[in-house]
Amino acid sequence: MVLGTAPPTRAPMPTIRRLLLAVMLLAIGLPLPLTILVRSAPADWFRGSVYLLLTDNADAPIRPPLRPAAWWNGDFQRGFEPWFAAVMAPRGWIVRLTNQLYYSAFGRSYMLGGAIVVGREEYLYEVTYLRAYCRSTHGAGADTFASFIGKVRELQSLLARRGRPLLFMVTPSKPVIMPEFLPAGLCDRPAAPDRLRKLFVALLQDAGIPVIDGSDMALAMKARDPLPPFPRGSVHWSRLAGGRAAGALMDEITALSGVDLGGLTLRNPRWTAAPVGTDADLAAILNLLRPPLDYPTGEAESICRPTVRGQSASLIAVGGSFLITALDPIGACRLFKQMDLYFYYTLGRIRWPGGREPVDRATLRWREMLEQAAVTVIEINESVIGPDVPHLEQFLDDALAALR
């Protein structure tokens, strides 16, 4: 620059550049108020749902608690960064905003592959259970179950020779227990949607196989409790119902084994609890800015009665997600030394204590495992009762081959 000359003036920023800058600043800053206004990150509500077993969301970051010790040792800083990045990511709130508009305007959701159906009064159902409900009139007869019942009876006999009881559990379907909230125009209401379940339970009982009918339990709860056994935003029966089922399961196990393996009872139920965990699994999967969690659920105090014999024993179970809600309270009470649930047989092994492990069907040592277990529990949901239940057929074939 030559002395005595005025410095060059900066050319005014073109309007288009100003506009782009404003858009960029808006995109950067908009998630911040949304972060404050949104009730909770979906991962917080989704955590604890059995749907984590079928997704990759188990490691979704959650907001770390701010405590002096956590700040001092750096745990808060390490946990805050991934949580903040997840919440601030523009795609996250855009997806939730889109889901909210779709849900609020049309009462629909495309989450979980479009499998969530919104019924009356915002009751949520899963489409597989609805299909089973609508098709329940096209039922099978007793001869359809002859082969399956025969396999269960043979397994029971082989286990009895080793002093090991077998227990069957049938769990309920939300559309069958609570059809009053089904969406209008779904299908013609079946005359007897529980026909197959009742037939199946009767066949098990006629064969001398001990069975807990969870559907009858749910209907009894519906008749006497101030809240229904299925929460509005859940595909599963409530955690309270699962706790009661756990108590019934322990009573039956003790009766069958002839050994006091412990017990579990619930007392002082409270009917104003907020929905968490499996009481809100479908509502959480909707992935909305404002999840529909404005409904009460029941909770009760668990009275655990462990025994020395029970805490040195193990339990093996094969079944689906409803069985998790019954085994969780037993695991929390530490009534058994070890419980292993083979989730849909090969989708994963869930352990109490422990976590989830993969299952390699070829390496399972069923003879050794069944002979060591104090009891074997098989669970089926009434929505899948029919001529073909592949995961249970596979288990029965493998267990029978090992014990014969």
Protein described:
The chain has helices at residues 15-29, 31-37, 42-46, 68-73, 75-88, 90-106, 127-134, 146-161, 174-177, 195-206, 214-224, 239-257, 281-285, 321-333, 366-372, 390-403; strands at 116-118, 124-126, 166-171, 211-213, 263-273, 297-305, 314-319, 338-343, 348-352, 356-357, 375-381. The chain is an alpha/beta fold. α8 packs parallel to α16 (390-403) and α12 (239-257) crosses α14 (321-333). It has a domain at 122-403. The relative contact order is 0.13. Helices cover 43% and strands 15% of the residues. A seven-stranded mixed β-sheet has the order 4-3-11-7-8-9-10, with helices on both faces.
Counted beta strands: 11
Which sequence of SSEs, written as H and E, runs from N to C? HHHHHHEEHHEHHEHHEHEEHEEEHEH
The number of helices is: 16
Low-pLDDT runs of 5+ residues are: 35-49, 52-59
Which class of secondary structure composition applies to the elements? alpha/beta
C-alpha-based Rg, rounded:
26 Å
Distance between the termini: 99 Å
Strand order of the biggest β-sheet: 4-3-11-7-8-9-10
What spatial form do the alpha-carbon principal axes imply? globular
Outline the biggest β-sheet: 7 strands, mixed
Strand residue content: 15-25%
Helix fraction? 40-55%
Mean pLDDT: 85
